[in-house]
Protein 1
Amino acid sequence: MLSSLTLASAFLALCIACVAANIARQLLFPNKKEPPVVFHWLPWLGSAVSYGRDPYKFLFAARAKHGDVFTFVLLGRNVTVHLGIAGNDFVFNGKETHVNAEEIYGPLCTPVFGEDVVYDCPNAKLMEQKKFVKFGLTTEALKVHVRLIEHEVVDYIKVSREFKGPSGIVNVPPVIAQITIFTAASALQGPEVRSKLTNEFASLYHDLDGGFSPINFVLPHAPFPHNIKRDRAQLTMRKIYEGIIADRRAGKLPPTTDMISHLMQCSYKDGRPVPDKEISNMMITILMAGQHNSSNVASWIMLHLANEPRICEELYQEQLDQLADENGNLPELELRDMEKLQLHSSVVKETLRMHNAIHSIMRLVKRPLPVPGTPWTVPPGHAVLASPGISANSEEYFPNPTKWDPHRWDNRGIEEDDESEMVDYGYGRMSRGTKSAYLPFGGGRHRCIGEKFAYLNLEVITAVMVRNFRFKNIDGREGVPGTDYSTMFSRPLEPAEICWERRSAEGA
Ligand code: HEM
């Protein structure tokens, strides 16, 4: 009894000594050669609680105190944040030898995406894989996607219990999550995968998605039930894709011109065709990488439209003005129509601005990294973090940033691509993004390859919802729900209910 008391006291004393040493080090011996550290009481845990609860609030508060560059401790790791346009450039366009994404994201993503793709292969191979996918999203492919996406949304509205009758109330996020998985599967994954979505594939998707639990950033291989299910689902899903590829090669399935077929024709620079296992894992990546972001942004769009029915009516009017025939009938959507729907595009841009789906983008520092314009160097082992959501929600770049105002884009394009700023990391020329405060799809070698598809998907979903329904907030509610940061992707806090009313008795 005595000895366990002594042990407990010794442990307590050790803890107190660690906390005291941690505080003294911060207050008395700051390292002047490195960026200032956000004060934290507890070693190892650091600022994890306040950062995890509301990353944007935490980052804005730290910026108010320390400026655009500072370090905070997150579960034993030093994370150096660089905010603003310069920070976006610092992190996104860091040299591959200096900053590395795969060591940060690999442990979480590789068990979900699978072996030999994305962060489980050399960066040069990832660049080739990104090129294959990006080049598969041709204008011809996008034309087909518009039709497929529209049909999916229309069919969903027809059969869903959530939209029965002339009006009702709907909890937006789960409904939109279903719609976006159907649209992405139908357009990107091909008919076989789409046909499986109603049964075993849906539960596999759910199990695989469990691999994105935030705890997996720290313990990705712990034998938790969700990790066991994740690993089983990855293997089963991969086998399903490999089966589809084998059947297509054997001519047992009708020929298609979708992403699987495109990848089946791709070869690496050394002439090696992409192995079936890698095609399968790339398809799984495409399915998993875009789903949460697209679903969350589409949910925020619906919630803002309900909060500002005036904009919903303007969107409807835009469709009537731009697309309706002489009798006022709206045709099925085409890719060329989407270019005419400027306000629809602004709604998507503005929602991406306010609700940047990924609040923190990180890289691991491999070599001492001087921070331009400061006396500081970020040492190897730190993570560096950019948060384009901060610049996109700062007064200096977007006046009145907390107002959701699609019309702010009326006379403001996304910064024009400056030829001298163009760069090719191996998957096509693109802007370095250095001059932009608006980078919802990131920048540099890890920039999103799904951007074009994502915009189109969101615009078509919005257009179909708007031509079918009017939306408004539930009586007595104002504004949109707060943000839930408890998962990896910022999403609306639930319940996030809105009222809908069908535009015509017969519906669309
Ligand atoms: C609204 C929808 C989307 C948003 C906001 C979004 C955002 C992003 C961002 C910010 C990154 C950069 C991450 C980093 O630098 O660490 C990224 C990377 C990526 N995105 Fe997207 N994305 C979306 C949809 C999609 C879709 C539909 C696909 C698939 C077609 C996709 C595939 C990818 C892939 C494979 C990467 C990893 C690239 C790399 O590390 O090199 N995304 N996305």
Protein 2
Amino acid sequence: MAFEMVGVVGLGTMGAGIAEVFARAGIQVAGVEADEQALARGRAHLERSTGRALDKGKLTPAEREEILARVTLTTSRADLRDADLVIEAIPERMDVKAELFAELDRLCKPSTILATNTSSLPVTALAAATGRPDRVVGMHFFNPAPVMGLVEVVGTVVTDPGVRAEVGDLAVRLGKTPVEVDDRAGFVVNRLLLPYLNHAVTLLDHGVAGRDDIDNAMKLGVGLPMGPFHLLDLIGLDTAYEIMNVLFDESRSDRHVPSPLLRSYVAAGLLGRKSGRGFYGDPGDGPQEKAPARTVHVVGSRELADRLEAAGFKDTEDADVVLQVGGSTPVSGRTVRVQLKGQVAELATSVLTEQEAVLGARDLLKIAGYTPVPCKDRAGLVVDALLYCHLNDAVRMYESGYASIEDIDAAMRLGCGYVEGPFELLESIGLAKVRDGLRDLHAEWRSPSSAPAPLLDKLVTAGLNRFPRP
Ligand SMILES: NC(=O)c1ccc[n+]([C@@H]2O[C@H](COP(=O)([O-])OP(=O)(O)OC[C@H]3O[C@@H](n4cnc5c(N)ncnc54)[C@H](O)[C@@H]3O)[C@@H](O)[C@H]2O)c1
């Protein structure tokens, strides 16, 4: 199909960006909004976004004019009659979207492909609202659409495979990487990302570590572009909670139980950036108290001992603070177990650890050039607990036949800005290390979802450190 003209219904956060993406690829766009006021907002959105690209030198004034001229703005759905494809980006409500799909089906020519940008609703149910279910797909863009390189192309059991392929080719023409997936809640990215974010909220709720410490651990210790609480505030806590509910309704897995803490934030109207306050933005946010350590004893890391000695600390056995790198739960109140992960030093405290020792250890590790992350002495501490379960989810997703290793890696790189996809990360950490970490987590929490995925276990047993790729 040539895709000479497309329709975009709803020109909010996503729709305006999607209209811009089509227009930039030289395609005529009819943008439809509910009323004149919303249409003006959509126009302003397009002008702002292309204006920014102009300021950054990514578009010339002439190119910007051409892009804007390709978009016709209207409040009449009838203007979509001759579109080759119509994509909707109206609010995430099944009844409203189903009504729109039924009307588009009546209005549009028989060959028009109808697409939805839904993040969590079943595409199959939208297809069923039309008389052309074989020509209905999900085309899931990421925010901001002009910047993010991924499009999840969602086919249902009734989608014509040719239509799916054409939409995939269209995504390539738009300069995006398409990932073909079936109609399962959350598709690839949200199905992997949201349970990990929800898990971070659970650790906070259980008091395993604090908000800033968990964010630091995942950003600096793993190299993710953003910590989970910053990301949740950006996504919107209500949206995150809703997606967790959709995932749980489909899977009934313990991994998908929405955190009660997330629910109480939503109930309190603290939705993140959109409401001005979520996990961040509390006026009570302030610096933590300080208690400088005087003497230190380091066990298990020559490098840490050297760094502290170079900073002028004398290593003595009867020190105020003992930093034990690795090993098992310490049995002295002065000893803090330390796990070094890149720039991050996790400080595990047990029921015996004295508060003075924790504060002293935190300062010492800062002086030694690490970002300290105080946490409770639980299996996996913060980084491994969050990361290994997240990676395990990716293995289970592949194992269930939902998506290929390449697609899952590409989706997480392009959709979430990861430097490495989950399988690349698994291989660079070492499959055996992750499998063993998951076994420890499972032994401690006994949650079925933390048991190593059977494929991971089998590969390690076979002595392999690589997933099978064609
Ligand atoms: N925001 C994101 O990060 C994101 C990312 C991927 C997918 N999505 C999905 O995209 C869709 C839209 O989300 P959004 O964040 O852009 O919402 P939004 O609220 O910013 O925009 C929705 C727009 O639809 C318009 N609208 C409402 N009813 C309409 C109708 N009957 N006809 C025409 N226009 C109508 C509204 O005026 C508004 O401009 C949702 O399905 C959402 O799940 C959102």
